[in-house]
Amino acid sequence: MILLLLLIPFVAGITAFFIRHDFARRVILVSAALLHFCITVSFYFKRPGPLWDGWLMLDAPGLLFLSITSLLFLMASLYAVNYLRRDKQHRGDADTDDFFFKTKPEALFTACLLFFLTTMSIVTVTQHLGILWVAMEATTLASAPLIYYHRSHHSLEATWKYLLICSVGIALALLGNLLLVMACPMDVTGPIPLLINEFVANGTSLQPQWLRMAFIFFIVGYGTKMGLAPMHTWLPDAHSEAPSFVSALLSGALLNCAFLGILRIHQICIAAGEAAFSQELLRVFGMISIFFAAVFIIGQKDYKRMLAYSSVEHMGILALGVGIGGEAVFASMFHAVNHSLTKGMLFLVAGNILMAYGSRITDSVSGVLKRLTFSGILWIAGFFAITGTPPSGLFVSEFLILKTAFAEGRYVTSALYLILLAVIFAGMALVFLNMAQGDSKKHNHPENIFLRERLLSIIPPAILCLITFILGLYVPDFLNKMLTDVAKCFGG
Amino acid sequence: MNWYILINIILPFVLAPFLFGVINRTKAFFAGRRGQPLLQLYYDLFKLFRKGSVYSVTTTWIFRIAPFAVFSSIVCVILIMPCGALVSPIGFRGDILLFIYFLAMARFFTVAAALDTGSSFEGMGASREVQFAALTEPAFILCMAALACETHSFSLSTIFSRLSFASWSGEGAVLLLVAVSLMIVLLAENSRVPVDDPNTHLELTMIHEVMVLDYSGPDLGFILYGAALKLWIIGSLVVGVALPVNTGNFFLDRFIFLGGMVLLAVIIGIIESVMARFRFLKIPQVLILASALSILALILQVRF
Amino acid sequence: MDNFRDLLIVLLMLINLMLLASSRIRYCIKIVAFQGLIVGLVPIFAAENGIGIGIILTALCVIAVKCVLLPILLQRSQIIADVRREVDPFVGYTASIFIGIAALVISFWISTRLPQMEKQVSHIAAPAAIFTVLSGLFIIMSRKIALTQVLGYLVFENGIYLFGGAMLLENGFIIELGILLDVFVLVFVMGIAVFHISQEFNHIDTDRLSQLGDWNAELPEEIKK
After folding, report:
1. DSSP strand E in A345-429: where?
2. Which residues contact A480 (CB under 8 A, 6 or more apart)?
3. H-helix or E-strand containing A102?
4. How far is CA B8 from the centre of its chain?
5. Which of A98, B219, C127, C218 lies 20 to 30 Å from A193, alpha-carbon distance?
6. Is the ipTM of this complex over 0.90?
């Protein structure tokens, strides 16, 4: 089943690359996403067995992150159909003459989208640190063409930064892998299996010095990809330049996958009795990220960048939660789910607004509520959700983290955390509310062709929004059980 | 003191100008010319020493004593220089530094005399000479330091008598780095081609040659002879590192050493034939690279 | 054999210094290719319990990719983008060499601080690997031309690979292949990006790529959708 899960998007991607008919290609995209989602759901009923000597094995954390990815991808692909159709009307359909081959841009784009799903799925299902690394690097490669979709100066700049910074970061994580192998006891002969289970089982025999070094490299390496400050610099550029549903995927799925990479090593550190060290690092990076996000959200002029910085903030919260430990780990996992859904939804709505207004500058957008009623409502709802206002799931998780921090006696951390969240709330409120309200006729926009809201561009974010708010009020048993399982793995 | 130590002094004085002949012959061969006689520099020196000197009226006593100061410091160097593995007449702990500073003193007097003429060209040459020397000296000192660590000795004579082919098989990397670095130092110190061109008389590109433009007669002779001796001195370091033969047979050793010197002259000739002068901006980089090589050698030597 | 191996590793370090000092891109590509060759050979020398077929295959793949394929790809990009030399880097070449020397000293210092290692190819392998990693990073940071940054990344990657090879870490054939494939595709994608940059800006200086940011937010009013 795992193989099927990986093969479906991969084969669909290859097919999509060669199909010249637009409609067929979009059908393939959505059906692959749907199939992927169905298989993922089926894993809840029957967990698949390990494959290839346990190289591929779906454990609780893997399943959690896989489900997030799969759900988000399904929504994004539905949204993408509409987006690509509109975009084509807008731009025409010329073949581009590329470095080595001629392609239809949309064919390449769809193929990369599906490869992106494949690589992210590999990240979630593998237990082998080497494969994890290879897949993580592959996500960068598959998503770089997605960011360059608009083919403008700016998207080129964003793509270049993304490629270079993330590749260097991930190469550092490779160094982390090597250091982890160095931490193995010397008497082992032959290749050391880089399986997480093995490491966890033999945790106490690892040499602590090497393990600590390895963790530092991992947190810097995968942290670059995850968007932890100060390695986050690629993130606002890439998120603001990519098509909106790609930003949703980057922010909701990709960052989580990178986080999973860090968590895996954290798991090993816990087994080796080095939990205090890794938790401290996670806390530090978490706080720095929240701080950076707060500084840059205030007075942000570009609403997609603001959403990107909000992702930095939430990644910081995730790391902080795991760093605090105990109950907070559970909260952190719950936060990951909620953040992905909410942020995905917000980026999709932002895409609608961008299409209608033709600008990412917050000042030139006003009166969304009047002009795009449904998007406007979702935008406001999203604002309340992302800032952690009570009925949303994010409130529950953020509050739980705060509670645990107090319970553990980390008063300074808690105070800083609260203050920064308040600052971010204020900064975001200004942007969101200004955009939603006001006079929609204030700015005279030449291109009103996209004014009507399509069903396909409203339903996906609406579904995501609904789930977020439901999760805030009621957590289903299966999810609760799984989150507890996951939290157990990471010291909760 | 054994009689054969005198060879240390006699060989350089007799044979140093011959190296220039070999270099010129090699260059001529590559250019397809017949070239000067091998002994041309001897004829030149002989001619110059018979002539009288002409002094510019703007110069002072500094200008007049400079050639003798240069020559005598080089003679001092020769007294502490071993000739291959053959110990030098005067050798003591720490003479590796004294040796480098004698060469520096020679440079100081050349530069001072060049400034003394008040000519802007010579001033420019002096400025360049000092700039490059500032980069060459670290490389030189670090090379000697690496060799000193290698052989656990601070005296030139002991360093070179302790080097052997066995040290090449043990510490090949270090010796190779030192040899390459010394070779760059040799080319820079003796104003050979990739750094400076001894044949050019275009003021804009000259370094060493421009500083001695105003000398004539015996003064010029001393300067030319000194330059030849300097080539011999640094060359014998390179040969001592690259070909550390110590068979025990006195004549065989000396013979191989001389062969090495001639070979070195041929190599210099080849380098001058196949390479162009570096741009001025490039020269500091090459010299720093030489320092980098010797630092690497020193690190490898000290740490392992 | 021991001496020869050390010599190779010293050569590797010298290549780093030369890269820091040289501005001609074609020459840089060549010496990076040569570095790839050395890096590929190290595991063969490192094999202590006999040279197995796996080791030879890995080495062959590494050499094929790092020494043949990637340089060809980069050279192609270089010809298409028509850049010959990096004229004006952020850090000049002389300063670069000084920093290289500092990095050299630092990496030897770091390697003395590392915990005890029993298994390793050569005592200078660890500092050489660290030095290569540092110089790769420095090249990425200090150069403006996109192609040179890619070269810097390759050097960086070589350093990491050397670290693995020198510490006798065997990842297994499949993982090595995966890593190689990733690096290859990465350079391929970067090659395409370099091509687009050269098309968009008529040259491939990445300092033109500085319009995105938070402080100089001169975002275009009209953004194409």
Report:
1. none
2. none
3. strand A102-103
4. 16
5. C127
6. no
Distance separating alpha carbons of residues C219 and C221, to the nearest angstrom? 6
Which has the closest alpha carbon to B300: B153, B161, B150?
B150
Cβ of C171 and A145 within 8 Å?
Answer: no
Out of A144, A191, A354, whose CB is closest to C225? A354
In the block, tokens 């199939």 appear at A35
Q: Say whether the peptide bond before residue A185 is cis (omega within 30 degrees of 0).
A: no
Interchain proximity C225–A140, CB inside 8 Å? no
- Show the beta-strand stretches assigned E in chain C: none
End-to-end CA distance of chain C: give it in Å, rounded. Answer: 62
> Hey, is the C-beta of B266 within 8 angstroms of any chain C C-beta?
no
Q: Tell me which residue of A110, A96, A47, A58 sits closest to A245, measured CA to CA.
A: A110
A364: tokens are 């030139």
Q: Is the pLDDT of residue C121 over 70?
A: no
Half-sphere exposure of C192 (CA within 13 A, CB side): 20
* Residue for token pair 């080595």: A100
Which among C1, C2, C3 is the top mutation candidate for probing chain B, defined by the most B β-carbons within 10 Å of its own β-carbon? C3
Say how many Å lie between the first and final Cα of chain A, rounded: 30
Mean pLDDT score of chain A, rounded to an integer? 85
Q: How far is CA C12 from CA A107, C38, C96, in A?
A: 43, 7, 17
| Structure tokens given for B184 | 């760059």
- 8-state DSSP, A364: G
- Contacts of residue B247, defined as CB under 8 A and 6 or more positions apart, other chains included, come to B253, B256
Query: CA-to-CA distance for B161 and B151, rounded, in angstroms?
Result: 9
Q: A400 near A327, Cβ under 8 Å?
A: yes
Instruction: Supply the DSSP symbol for A444.
Output: -
- Residue B193: half-sphere exposure toward Cβ, Cα within 13 Å: 15
Residue A361, both tokens: 């500058």
Which bin fits B164, alpha (ψ -120 to 50), beta or left (φ > 0)? beta
Q: Which of A69-83, A199-213, A308-322, C19-33 has the lowest mean pLDDT?
A: A199-213
CA distance C198 to C207: 13
Please give the model's pTM, rounded to 2 decimal places: 0.86
CA–CA separation, C209 and C142 (whole Å): 15
Check if the beta carbon of residue A195 is closer than 8 Å to that of residue A54.
yes
Cite the beta strand spans of B55-145 per DSSP E.
none
